[in-house]
Sequence to fold (754 residues):
Amino acid sequence: MVPLSYYLVLGGFLFACGVAGFLIKRNIITIFMSIELMLNGVNLSFVAFAAHWHALAGQVFVFFVMVVAAAESAVGLAIIIAVYRTRETLNVDQINLLKL
Amino acid sequence: MTSSLNLWLIPVLPLAGAAINGFLGKKSSRTAVTTIQLAFSGASFAWALYVAARFSSVALPYQEYLAHWIRSGPFTADFAFYLDQLTLIMLLVVTGVGFLIHIYAIGYMWEEEGFYRFFAYLNLFMFFMLMLILSNSYLGMFIGWEGVGLASYLLIGFWFTKDSAASAGKKAFIVTRIGDCGFLIALFLLIQHFGSLNFTQVFDRVHPYAAETGGAGFLTAIALLLMLGACGKSAQIPLYVWLPDAMEGPTPVSALIHAATMVTAGVYMVSRSHLIFERSPMALTVVAVIGTLTAFFASTIGIAQTDIKKVLAYSTVSQLGYMFMACGVGAFSAGIFHLMTHAFFKGLLFLAAGSVIHGIGGEQDMRKMGGLRSYIPVTFGTMGIATLAISGIPPFAGFWSKDEILWKAFSSGPAGRVYWLIGLITAFITSFYMFRLIFMTFFSDYRGGHVDEDGQGSHGHDAHGHGEPHESPMVMLVPLMILAFLATVGGLVGIGDRFEHFLAPVFGSGEVAAAAGEAASRGTEFLLMGISITVAILGLVLAYVLYISKPYLPQKIADGLNGFYTAVLNKYYVDEIYARLFVKPLVEGSTRILWHGVDQKVIDNTVNDAADGARKVSDEVRHMQSGNLRSYASWIAAASAVMIAYMIWVGVGR
Fold:
C-alpha cells in the first residue's frame, strides 16, 4: 500500500507546478493548462484522502471539480478565441484591459 | 375652579403676527403689514384687559397648563402659565405700552426699507416678553429671557449695514450673556436643592428655610447669581455698558425694549424671587448697593451727554438703579410701582425724543437743536410732562413711585439712610439733566439747519437739507398723548399704599405690616417728600440758570473742572477700561491661542495631514491595479501562501 503522504506530496508538487506556470507563462493557453494542473493536484489529494478515510465525499467532490473544469475550459477556450480574433495575440502582458 | 382664562392667547397672538409678517411681509404692502401687526398686538392687549376684568373672579395664583415639555425623573417642566397680581401689572404694562409703541412705530418707520422686518421682530419681542412674564416656572422665564435678548439683538442691529449698529447689537447680546450665565447657574442650583423650577414648588420648599443671617449659604448663592442675571438684563453695574450703545436701534425699539419693558425684566425677576432674596440679607444688601451706585453713577454720566437718546439711556440705567434699590431694601412693591410709572414716562420720553429726531431729519445731537417748542408743540408738551414725571415733581407719576422708594429706603435702617441720601442726590441730578435736555432741545433758538436765519445760536453746522422742523404725523402723536396722560395720573394709584396692598398677596404680609407701622411716622414721610420736591425743583432751577439765563456758564464750569468733566464726558472711561481689561485679552488670546494655535495648528493641520496621508497612501496603492493579469495572479498567490502559512501555524500550535 502506497502511503498517503506520497499522494499528497505529488498533489502538492502538481499544484506548485500549476502556480509556477500560471505566474511565469505569458501565453493564455499555457496559463489555462496551468490552472488545469492546479485543479488536478487538488483532485489527487481529494481522492487520496477519500481512499485513506474510506469516505466517498472526496470522490464525489472530484467529479464536481471535473465537471466544473470541463465547463470552464469550454467557456475559457471560447473567450481565448474571441480575444485572439480581436487582439491577434495571446500574450497576457499585452492584454491589460483589467485596469481602470 | 373657574373657567379658563386662556392666558396662552396673550403671548401666542404676537407670535402669530410675527410669523405672518416675517414670512409673508416682504411681498405684501405696508398697509397689510401694519394691519397685521396692529391686529395681533392689539388683540393681545385686548385679551390682557379681558384678563384684568375677570381678575377678581379667579382664584389666585391662577395657573394654566398647556402642554408638558420635559419629564425627566422627578423633574418636570411644562408649558404652563401663572397669573397673580404681579403678573397682571407686568402684563398690562407690557401689552399696553407695547401696543402704543406699535402704533407709534408705524409713523416712525414708514419710510424704512425693512418695514415688515421691523414689525416681525417687534411682535416677536412681545411674544418672548410675555412668555417671560406669564410663565409658571423659572425655565419658561429663562426662555423668554433669552428670547427678548435675541429680539433686542435683532432690533438694535436693525440697520445692520451701519457698522456701529451691528456692533452695538453684538455688544448688547454678549454683555447680557454674562449675566445669563449667572442666571443659568442659579437655575441649576435651584434644581439641585429643590428639584424643581416651578414657582409654586420652589417657593413652597424655600419657605421653611430661615434667613441666612449667620453667613452665606446656598440661598445667598442662588440670590446673588440671580442678581447677576438681573444686572445683565437690567443694565446695572458692572454690566450696564450695553444699554447706552443699544440706542443705535430705531427709537421705538429704545422706547419699548430698552426703557419700558425688557430692561425691567431683571426687576421683575428679583421681585418674583423675593422669597429667596428675603432669606439672604447679604444678597439684599448687594442688590441695594448695586442699585444705589448705579442710580448715582449713571445719572452723573447723563449730565454731560449731548446725544438726546444717550441722555435718556443713562437716565434709564439710573432709574433701574432706583428699582433695584427698592428691591434691595425689601420694598418690592415700590420697585414694581416705579417700574410701572417708569414704563409710562420713559417710554414717553423716548417716543417724544423720536418725534424730535423725526421732526428735524434724523439729528440726535442736542447742540444742534434748540427752540423747537414753537415748531413741534405737541411733542414739547408731552415731553415736558414726562420730564416733570421723571424729575419727581407732583402730581406726576414719577414723584409717587420715586418718593415711595426713597421713603422705604430711609425707613429701612441705618444703611437705608445712606441709600436715601444718594438717591436724593441722584434725584437732584436727574431733575437737572432732564431739564437740561428740555432747555437745550426746546428753548432758546434753533441751532440746527438753514431755518435758523437770525444766527443767534448757530454754531456753524451745515444744514442737512431737511428744511424746517416739522411736527410728526398724528399716528405718532396720539400714543404720545395717551402716554402723557398715563405719566400724569399713573402715580395716583399709589396714594394711600393702594398699590402696595394690591401686591401684598404676592410679596407677603411683612410689607403690609411695615406699611401699617409707617402710619405712625407720617410726619417724617411728609418731611422727606418735601425735601425731595425741593431737590427736584432745585435741579430745575439750576438747569434754567445754566442753560437759559446764563448760557455761557456751563462751558466755564466745564473748563474749571477740566479733568473731571472730561472723565464724565467720556463716561468715566468704563468702556475703555472694559476694552483693556476684558475685550483685548480675550481677542488677543483668541487670536493667538485659539485661532493661530488651536484652530490653525491643531484642527486645520490634523485635517490637512489626514488628507495628505490618504493621498500619499493611495498614490502608492493605486499602482497595484496595473491591469497586468500576472501581477494580479502574484498577489492572489502571495495572499494564499500567507493564509496557508497562517493556518498551518495555527494548526501546529494546537
About this structure: Chain B touches chain A through ten residues (CB under 8 Å). The first helix of chain B runs from residue 9 to 24. Residues 450-466 of chain B have pLDDT under 50 and may be disordered. The longest strand of chain B covers residues 62-72.
